[in-house]
Amino acid sequence: MKEKLEQIKESALEALKNAAAEKDLEALRVKYLGKKGDLTSILKQMGKLSAEERPVVGQLANKIRAEIENNIEQRAEKLREKAQELKLQNETVDVTLPGVRSKKGGLHPLNIMLDDMIDIFRSMGFDVVDGPEVETDFYNFKALNVPDDHPARDMQDTFYLGENLLLRTQTSAAQIRTMTSRKPPIRIICPGRVYRADEVDATHSPVFHQIEGLVVDKGVTLCDLKGILEQFAREIYGEGTEVKFRPSFFPFTEPSVEVDVSCPECRGKNSSCRVCKGTGWIEILGAGMVHPNVLRHCGIDPEEYTGFAFGIGLDRLTTTRYKISDIRLLFENDQRFLEQFDK
Ligand code: PHE
Fold first, then answer.
1. Which pTM does this prediction carry?
2. What is the pLDDT of residue 343?
3. 265 alpha carbon to ligand 1 midpoint, in Å?
4. Cβ < 6 Å from ligand 1: which residues?
């Protein structure tokens, strides 16, 4: 019996050495020490022993049980340590590795330009208003002093959406919406997209952007228009920028002007300048004093109030500012192009 006990001990200790997980240890405990385990079944045969042998074998059995239990405990401790070590190893962070950079979006050059312009006009007391891109013929043409058969309609090739609906060809439609919903004094700008059925090339796009400006009050003159536009041009293109008015025609302004600024690239000193084509000037907007008919259409008495309006081409300003040679780049969403403007 003693031998059997020793055998159990040997086999248990050997098995424990190879146990690789805590659940294996539990299985071994059941196998050797459990109620139906090997040791227990030996002890059950103790009755057959003589009175002298019984305490000796009993002691030995207890000793072996204690030894196996001890061993199980030690082995369990070892396995726990190993598991912990492995866990630490797996969770190690190499703080010297470079971080994962997340991609940063940026403002579109048109929006950078627009934000700057809004800042300038806000500082001069202008409100920013919004208008619909789908307009009625009334707001885009008729109320702007362009009746149905007026030749001025040919100046702008229009996308019609139906008899009366169209994609606005100019932000000037916002003048009417403003004057019919607010009383003077009025001082607003309205930036937005406009549409014309133009062929696409390096300087034309069927969708482009304008910023309309409108001021209506008592005693407003062409001089005020010039002052505001000079201030604007100098903030955009720098001190010393000259502004030139050229007589022009728009049905909704009288007198009408086109406004040039001295070439920000060459200041008129380079006869082969690509920006101004050697003329020394670039055209940036159309403007004029609001036509009395337009004021009247909106219920404003032209005897009491006068006003001026201007329409700035945002795309042109942006391409000259950033020396972009082709307007199409603004609309193609080529990330390599756009990333250059990330501020
Ligand atoms: N709406 C005109 C255009 O698109 C520009 C303009 C606006 C002219 C306001 C005068 C006054 O050409």
1. 0.71
2. 61
3. 25
4. 170, 172, 250, 253, 286-288, 309-311
